[in-house]
Design a protein that fits this description.
Length: 331
């Protein structure tokens, strides 16, 4: 059954959230450890808690900074008509909860914001002189792809604006744009055109190459994705080719591959994204957003949605945010 546009919006946000909560349980673990410890995503979500490196145990069913910041972007699109990066920055600060596993660079920047609000543009380079090229801005851009699924140029522009507060390296911008356009393309396609999908992502790099920025990492990754799909390579095999780390140029292509390798089955996408190991919460979050945007809410196992254990952003609340985005941007 082809998903309705509204169902695609719901599937994207809840698909990202489910990927995040499943991946969070085994974040930074090896594929070998995950396979030895768990048989399935159901096994993972049935776990009550897992030890943290420091502090209280991680409670399974809670989402990380990935979903928290994604929902900030959604509410920014809904409430801030100008889509000013400074306003998004302020939303991130208000929503900040240290226990949600923020990256050290982002955490430092968020803590500095109130004291240095007038200099917010400089904060993104406070830890990394050229800005961070981590996946932290790509992981949160799904709502932008939804909002501008029919206007890829605007989607790319707003994705870059959303990256600016915390991730100002050109590779982070490229990753954010690529992920947002992947969501936009998945939302707009009723049937998957893999070649067209990859062409759209390649075109997204032209803007950066026109600015004389190095796009070779993402260009090479797209070539590897195309080659991997042509020979039927597994996601696990491709994780050693593309990488599964926190860099945007590893995590974004890996998420793309998980979706394109299993375009008709959300559950398979999430299983593969989690069981490859590495930065599992973010890769599964991004892959889940794309898959959910393509297949819609009905493709996500209901028991997985019910495994979300949040008091404010319950599944119903997230679905309502998706509906508001649809109502505002699909008129």
């Amino acid at each position: 059954m082809i998903a309705t546009p509204r169902d695609k919006f719901r599937g994207c946000l809840l698909g990202a959230t489910v990927g995040d909560i499943a991946g969070a349980v085994v974040e930074a673990e090896s594929a070998g450890y995950i396979a030895k410890t768990y048989r399935s995503i159901d096994d993972i979500l049935a776990t009550k808690s897992v030890p943290e490196f420091s502090g209280p145990d991680w409670q399974v069913g809670r989402f990380t900074d990935d979903t928290q910041m994604m929902l900030c972007v959604a509410e920014w699109l809904l409430n801030d008509e100008s889509c000013a990066p400074e306003d998004l920055f302020a939303r991130f600060v208000r929503a900040y909860q240290p226990w949600r596993r923020y990256g050290s660079g982002t955490e430092m920047i968020l803590r500095m914001f109130e004291e240095h609000r007038k200099e917010w543009r400089e904060l993104a380079t406070a830890m990394f002189p050229e800005g961070s090229y981590g996946n932290g801005s790509a992981m949160r851009v799904a709502p932008i792809g939804l909002a501008y699924f029919d206007n890829f140029e605007t989607a790319a522009s707003v994705a870059m604006a959303s990256s600016r507060p915390t991730h100002s390296h050109s590779l982070a911008y490229q990753g954010a744009v690529m992920q947002s356009l992947a969501v936009a393309t998945a939302t707009s396609q009723a049937e998957l055109d893999t070649d067209g999908f990859l062409r759209t992502l390649r075109r997204s790099l032209v803007y950066f190459s026109d600015l004389l920025q190095d796009t070779s990492k993402f260009s090479r990754a797209l070539n590897e994705i195309e080659h991997g799909l042509s020979r039927g390579a597994s996601c696990f095999e491709m994780s050693s080719v593309l990488g599964a780390g926190i860099a945007a140029y590893e995590a974004v292509p890996m998420a793309l591959y998980c979706f394109l390798r299993h375009p008709d089955a959300y559950a398979d996408v999430i299983h593969q994204a989690v069981f490859i190991g590495g930065d599992t919460d973010t890769i599964a979050c991004m892959a889940g957003a794309i898959s959910g945007a393509f297949l819609g809410l009905q493709a996500i196992p209901r028991r997985w949605i019910e495994a979300i254990h949040e008091t404010e952003y319950t599944p119903t609340a997230i679905e309502e945010i998706a509906d508001r985005l649809f109502d505002k941007y699909s008129e």
